[in-house]
Design a protein that fits this description.
The chain is α+β, with helices and mostly antiparallel strands and 1152 residues long. The structure holds one RNA strand of 76 nucleotides.
RNA sequence: GGGCGAAUAGCUCAACGGCUAGAGCACUCGCUUUACAUGCGAGGGGUUCGGGGUUCGAAUCCCCGUUUGCCCACCA
């Protein structure tokens, strides 16, 4: 594996110009400034060389370590990773590294996804842009040649993605990296398909799918997007006829109705049947009657095989037994009654019906095109018998009028063309225009003065599904597809059971609901895709008829033999067939056989089938089929590998909410189906499940994290081009800073916005880009931006490139992104660097002295330091550390990553740097116990921070490790397990006894006093270096051990119990009146106006507090019902507030 | 249409029925202070979207409304 490179030459130059040596990890020479780029690749190499990320299943299997496993959600090889991925992977790395340190055998399994349709579309687009592909893909390339192109693209992007993850510091087990189409995964896919096929859970069916006429493939619902388009409602008149006319039953069944067969129904006749519609009263008696349908897609009328009316429609009765004749086509189709049809507003019976948005434009007559509309298809299922009878036989009412490219075709299931030849060969759009034209031209019936077939059209704006990849309008299309019967209880129900038994849980828990509801309403999963890039379906189809009997016998014998040997499985027909249908029965009943061959390398079977003119299905599997097997395939299934035994089920899955159904659900179903019940022994090296869905869930926890949006609140996406490359951020802020900031943002519910700036490639300047609104209404950075200092210099943006509007060039380079959001992490890394450096400087100085004193002698082993022997500030620090460890543990256990980040941030910055380091400065050189605490504190914090900031902590750990360490009783810091690296060091363990509440109280009292003094100093602009005197009032609490700390931290020269003689300033703490003197030289007057203003505000605030507390306490319900400690607390607060208010008022009065 | 969220300081977000609603950034004032100006000290800034209710007590729970995001379904 290549190590991450891509260092900025610009930064390198700066770095070399720097006089001080940087980039070394020697303890004596930690660089003055922390430059991430100087360390990241070196640290990475140390990790890789030491193999610290490599998980060893034998340690799990022999009980030496518990497993902790995370499977990476394999990124699509379609594009570089963006910040959303960085976020997702940071979380996974935090969990993996923390558990590794906690002693788990941690495996983070890396890999990428071939992303079938997406990748094929991207490559196709690229080839077209490069001029290598013109016209139809299938004419320009052979399957193999095109797959080779995609393969090359995949190799390129897989390397890019892998490089990005490594630069981020992801501690994946890179030796185990997988790809969803590599041989190991392919074997798992093949085996899984075979078993489902054999077990009757895969079937072939004719279904309406979303058809992409450009890519000529079925697309899943999630591969579509809705777009509003301006269309029209067309109102078309269908002439009424009597059903049978002169035609014979055989003629009808053959679909060869003689012209003029249908006998028109006249208005008078219709009226006689009870038709009483005011607006039709004027129609001439002898004219042919009609019904009006409303449609947005008039061209589909060619495939109509019924007209439907609501049974409650008052007109329904008059129409019973009548039909309509499709204009031009001449097809006579029945009028069926179905409750699905919406009554027009005028006929609606209830308010609810009136409120139906469809009622506004409905005519009450619905044209039914079962082959081209999902609802119509369902309606057809309910009226199959009558519709098929009219259409001439079973299944004949499904009339497909489109070729795969969505042109009108008479070659794909439409035979009764009649007078509609003029439409054949037209595109959907042209056909629509021509149909409307024809309806305008022709009349209902042949009488002079008859009304035109076209009634009217009204503009209508509605959303229409488009294919994500090609942007073409999706056509509902009837086609042969393979399905997984996920509705079977061994799949969907088993997935929900995992939730009910708590084997599987979601964090946050509310996502369990959508998971569960999805399974309750699941539909069978269409797994075939008409693509070239993917796992090809391992089914060969052929025909056993039309062969000499002497050929059939050897064939059937072989097939029976191989089926018995589990080398092939023969497709069992639908569930309506009796179970256990024999091969002979199938053979007798069906003209075609579908045979799944278990192994790709079973040459004997495959060549035999191909010689027998069986052909392999050209389709490939839906990408999610192989993704669903990820927990199995990556660990070696179907073989009984040590990895599978050790690491499946895995521990935690980290993903975004959008793929709970697409991916999470399917992994659960497949793992439960394919894995044997826990405790089952493997036989013959292969794992055979009972096929009941009783296996384990593939993971215990599913952590669903927030989504990173751009500055406009839009999701980062490829198509929008608003993704930010993590490498840009690593360049501007460093990997640790990026990781820390992302982790800090990982709150539970709230999606986070990430506004980004641009870095000018000409000047290095950071600036906010100019935004534009694109044609889809999204606010995006303009494709071309000007350098802020020199507007003649231009650059292009990621959006510009992604949208295809511009290309990067030498004159107009691609501008990198950055964001001041990451300053948080960068500043924190710097703070850590400086704090550690300072701590080590202190330790080093002391060690020199100690070594000089003990020259020659071997130091005696020192006993562990007991907290009780330590000073207040040390006991306080140990107490804070113990709490920090506990808080971090809780946060990580509960997947509260921002809490974890915040808790280590406060521990290091607020507690350790702001107070501890400042407090120990005067004493640490002489206090060996204090130095032991200092050493332990920095060590503990490096460990706590390592999961989120691995690079900087690893560099510092090496330096810190060189300082001798004394044990602190109760604080366990075990050394690295497999190397000298922090990455394998033990997670800190702090005994609860280290939490010292007395020390915390005492320290807090001191801190309150110090803060109050600092406030006075700021108020009176007392220079930092000026030492002042504190006068404590009678009855003030004894500062005790805090006395010296207060003097150090507040800049006191003395603490006196007598009142000041000269000028002084008062302040109050806890209602006690303290004074400070010697604030200024005698010549300078103390400015009382600022002091007055401050006190006035204090008085106002306190008055309000007293009021609030008084009101609370005087409420009779409060004393009665609130818990006593709350009441007590309020009383104390009130007392304190009153004391402080009095003190402030007195002081204000004094100032006059 | 069904489901799930969100609305809190100028911005981005915390606060899981009870400390005077917090943090980072931004802002104001002061500071070359011997680890760190990517810093240090201090400060200002809130009718917690609106309206009802439950409760001794509501940012938090319930109801209604407004705005907004996502998922699913549907779209004659």
């Amino acid at each position: 594996m290549a190590t991450p490179t891509n260092q900025s030459t610009q930064q390198k130059t700066e770095h070399n110009a720097d006089a001080a040596p940087t980039g070394t990890t020697s303890p004596d020479a930690l660089a003055k400034q922390f430059r991430p780029i100087d360390h990241e690749s070196k640290v990475w190499d140390r990790w890789i060389n030491a193999k610290v990320f490599h998980a060893d299943p034998s340690r799990v299997l022999n009980g030496a370590g518990k497993p902790y496993t995370i499977l990476i959600p394999p990124p699509n090889v379609t594009d570089r990773l963006h910040l959303g991925h960085a976020f997702n992977n940071t979380i996974q790395d935090v969990l993996t590294r923390a558990h590794r340190m906690m002693g788990f055998e941690a495996l983070w399994m890396p890999g990428t996804d071939h992303a079938g349709i997406a990748t094929q579309a991207v490559v196709e687009k690229r080839l077209r842009a490069a001029g290598e592909l013109k016209g139809s893909l299938k004419e320009a390339f052979t399957r193999d040649a095109f797959v080779e192109k995609i393969q090359a693209f995949k190799d390129e992007y897989e390397a890019v993605i892998t490089g990005q993850l490594k630069r981020m510091g992801c501690s994946c087990d890179w030796d185990r990296q997988r790809f969803t189409m590599d041989p190991q995964c392919a074997e798992a896919v093949r085996e899984a398909f075979f078993r489902l096929f054999r077990d009757g859970l895969i079937y072939r069916g004719k279904r309406l799918v979303n058809w992409d006429p450009v890519l000529q493939t079925a697309v899943a619902d999630d591969e579509c997007f809705d777009e509003e388009i301006d269309g029209n409602f067309y109102y078309l008149r269908y002439p009424l006829v009597h059903p049978h006319g002169a035609s014979t039953q055989p003629e009808r069944e053959a679909g060869t109705l003689p012209p003029g067969d249908a006998v028109p129904v006249t208005w008078s006749e219709l009226r006689a049947r009870g038709w009483d519609v005011a607006e039709d009263a004027a129609h001439a008696d002898e004219h042919q009657a009609w019904v009006t349908v409303a449609t947005t897609r008039p061209e589909t009328y060619l495939g109509d095989t019924a007209v439907a009316i609501n049974p409650h429609d008052p007109r329904a009765k008059a129409l019973r037994g009548l039909c309509v004749e499709l204009p031009l086509v001449g097809r006579v189709i029945p009028i069926v009654e179905d409750g699905y049809v919406v009554l027009p507003e005028a006929l609606a019976r209830t308010d609810e019906e009136k409120a139906d948005p469809k009622a506004k434009f409905a005519t009450g007559f619905l044209k039914v095109t079962p082959a081209h509309d999902a609802n119509d298809h369902e309606l057809y299922q309910r009226h199959k018998r009558v519709m098929d009878e009219f259409a001439g036989g079973t299944g004949k009412a499904l009339i497909n009028i489109f070729a795969p490219d969505a042109t009108i075709s008479d070659k794909h299931g439409w035979n009764d063309i009649g007078g509609a030849h003029l439409f054949v060969g037209l595109s959907r759009e042209e056909a629509r225009r021509k149909v409307v034209e024809a309806f305008k031209k022709h009349a209902v019936g042949s009488q002079t003065g008859a009304a035109p077939l076209f009634a009217k059209s009204v503009p209508y704006r509605h959303s229409v599904p488009h294919s994500d990849r090609s942007k073409a309008v999706v056509e509902p299309y009837l086609s042969d597809q393979w399905y997984v019967k996920v509705t079977d209880q061994r799949l969907a129900k088993a997935a929900n059971e995992a939730l009910h038994t708590r084997e599987l849980s979601f964090h946050p828990a509310r996502y369990a609901k959508s998971y569960e509801q999805w399974h309750d309403n699941i539909r069978d999963w269409c797994i075939s895709r008409q693509l070239w890039w993917g796992h090809r379906i391992p089914v060969w189809s052929g025909d056993l008829f039309d062969r000499p009997a002497e050929h059939v016998k050897p064939l059937t014998d072989k097939i029976r033999e191989w089926e018995a040997a589990n080398r092939i499985a023969v497709f069992k027909r639908s569930g309506k067939d009796p179970a256990g249908l024999t091969f002979n029965e199938q053979y007798e009943r069906y003209t075609d056989l579908s045979i799944c061959v278990r192994r790709e390398d079973d040459v004997e079977v495959i060549s035999f089938l191909e010689q027998a003119r069986f052909t392999r299905d050209p389709d490939v599997l839906d990408t999610w089929f192989s993704s669903a097997l990820w927990p199995l395939s990556t660990l070696g299934w179907p073989h009984a590998t040590p990895e599978l035994a050790a690491f499946n089920p895995t521990s935690t899955l980290c993903t975004a909410r959008e793929i709970i159904t697409l991916w999470v659900s399917r992994m659960v179903m497949f793992n439960r189906y394919f894995m044997p019940k826990v405790g089952t022994k493997a036989e013959g090296g292969r794992l055979e499940a009972q096929g009941l869905g009783h296996g384990p869930a593939p993971f215990k926890d599913v952590f669903i994290h927030a989504v990173i949006q751009d500055g406009q609140g839009q999701k980062m996406s490829k198509s929008l081009g608003n993704g930010v490359d993590p490498l840009d951020i690593i360049l501007s802020h460093g990997a640790d800073a990026m990781r820390f900031t992302l982790c800090h943002m990982a709150t539970q519910t709230q999606d986070v916005r990430m506004p980004v700036d641009l870095v000018c490639p000409h000047t290095g300047e950071v600036f906010a880009p100019k935004f534009v609104t694109n044609k889809d209404g999204y606010v995006v950075p303009a494709s071309i931006q000007s350098s802020p200092k020199d507007p003649s210099k231009k650059m292009v943006t990621g959006y510009g490139v992604a949208s295809g509007e511009v290309k990067a060039s030498a004159e107009m380079p691609l501008a990198k992104n950055t964001s001041s959001k990451f300053d948080l992490g960068r500043n924190f890394a710097t703070k850590l660097w400086n704090a550690a450096k300072f701590a080590m400087m202190i330790l080093e100085n002391a060690e020199k002295t100690v070594n000089a004193e003990k020259a020659g002698g071997t130091p005696a082993p020192q006993a562990a330091v007991e907290a009780s022997s330590l000073s207040l500030v040390d006991r306080w620090m140990l107490s804070r550390l113990a709490r920090g460890v506990a808080d971090a543990n809780t946060a990580l256990r509960e997947y509260q990553f921002s809490v974890y980040a915040q808790c280590v941030y406060d521990l290091l910055w607020r507690d350790f740097c702001d107070w501890y380091l400042e407090a120990i400065k005067p004493t640490v050189e002489k206090d060996a116990g204090q130095r032991a605490v200092l050493r332990a504190a920095i060590d503990t914090m490096l460990r706590l921070l390592h999961p989120v900031m691995p690079f900087v902590t690893e560099v510092l750990y090496e330096a810190v490790s060189r300082h001798p360490r004394r044990e602190i009783a109760g604080l366990s810091l075990t050394p690295p397990r497999t190397s000298a690296l922090l990455a394998s060091a033990g997670w800190p363990q702090a005994a609860p006894s280290l939490i010292d509440e007395a020390a915390e109280r005492e320290f807090e009292a001191m801190r309150t006093l110090v803060t109050a003094i600092r406030e006075v100093r700021a108020q009176h602009t007392v220079p930092f270096k000026r030492k002042i005197t504190l006068h404590t009032p009678p009855g003030a609490p004894d500062l005790a051990a805090g006395r010296d700390l207060a003097m150090t931290l507040a800049g006191l020269e003395a603490i006196s119990t007598t009142a000041p003689t000269g000028p002084s300033v008062a302040f109050s703490v806890d209602g006690l009146d303290y004074r400070l003197s010697n604030l200024k030289d005698a010549a300078e007057a103390v400015d009382t106006s600022a002091e007055k203003a401050r006190l006035t505000k204090v008085v106002a605030d306190l008055t309000k507090s007293v009021e609030t507390l008084d009101k609370r306490l005087s409420n009779p319900g409060y004393a009665d019902k609130a818990p006593p400690h709350m009441v007590q607390q309020s009383k104390e607060q009130l007392e304190k507030a009153r004391r402080e208010l009095a003190a402030a008022q007195t002081e204000l009065a004094t100032l006059g």
